[in-house]
Amino acid sequence: MGKAKRAHRSSSSRKDGGHGASRLLPTLRQLNKGRELATNVDEGFIEVVVMRAVTRFAMVLSLTSALASSCTAAFAAQPYEGFWASTKKDCRDQDSASRMSIEGGNRLYWYETRCRAGEITADGKQSWKMRLACEGEGEKFRANPRVSVAADGRLVIENGPVGQAKRQTYVRCEIAKKR
């Protein structure tokens, strides 16, 4: 039998599967002589586990960023959100019945009325149609106003749930930030 065949036969008959790992890697007893305790996990296995973890983390990170970028528009403040009043003077009067606010994109509040928009659809560049479920003064009712922001920055609500006029116009109130 030639040298090559003997070498092959002797390496394949080893207990470690013929890879010679027992000669290359230290034993647990040798590793544990140092300060840190070793495990029976070899470096190759650790490398694979770390690479899998890094790959999974990268996938989760990329999915999260993709979801965040697609949802950003949904969570962005709408131009009609904020505090509004019939006049600038009413902005300063916290008890004014002429004040209102639109918060979270779909919640509208007046002096004694509050509404939640179940559906909001764009109706032009700076206008929206809303389906509101409202309650105020002990009654529940529905309204379908058209809300728009005029070129001068005023909020216009046509067919709104409050007021006797079919069209209310509001100015934006500048609310001082609390410290």
Helix and strand arrangement:
Layout: H1 3-12, H2 21-24, H3 28-31, H4 43-75, E1 82-85, H5 88-92, E2 99-103, E3 107-109, E4 113-122, E5 127-136, E6 139-143, E7 146-149, E8 155-158, E9 167-172
Antiparallel strand pairs: 1-2, 1-9, 2-3, 3-4, 4-5, 5-6, 5-7, 7-8, 8-9
Can you put this structure into words, describing what you see?
- With 179 residues, this protein is an alpha+beta fold.
- The chain has two domains: 3-74, no CATH class; 82-172, no CATH class.
- 31% of the residues lie in helices and 28% in strands.
- The protein has an eight-stranded antiparallel barrel.
- Strand 7 (146-149) and strand 8 (155-158) form a beta hairpin.
- Residues 1-12 have a biased composition (Basic residues).
Order of helices and strands: HHHHEHEEEEEEEE
Largest beta-sheet details: 8 strands, antiparallel, barrel
Tell me the span between the first and last alpha carbons: 91 Å
Going across the biggest sheet, name each strand in turn.
1-2-3-4-5-7-8-9
Helix-and-strand structural type: alpha+beta
In total, the number of domains comes to: 2
Please work out how many helical segments DSSP would assign: 5
- Strand residues, percent: 25-35%
Mean model confidence by pLDDT: 76
Rg (C-alpha, Å): 35 Å
| Range of helix content | 25-40%
Cα shape: elongated
Spans where pLDDT lies below 50 across 5 or more residues: 4-14, 68-75
The number of distinct β-strands equals: 9
TL;DR?
With 179 residues, the protein is α+β, with helices and mostly antiparallel strands. The protein has helices at 3-12, 21-24, 28-31, 43-75, 88-92, and strands at 82-85, 99-103, 107-109, 113-122, 127-136, 139-143, 146-149, 155-158, 167-172.
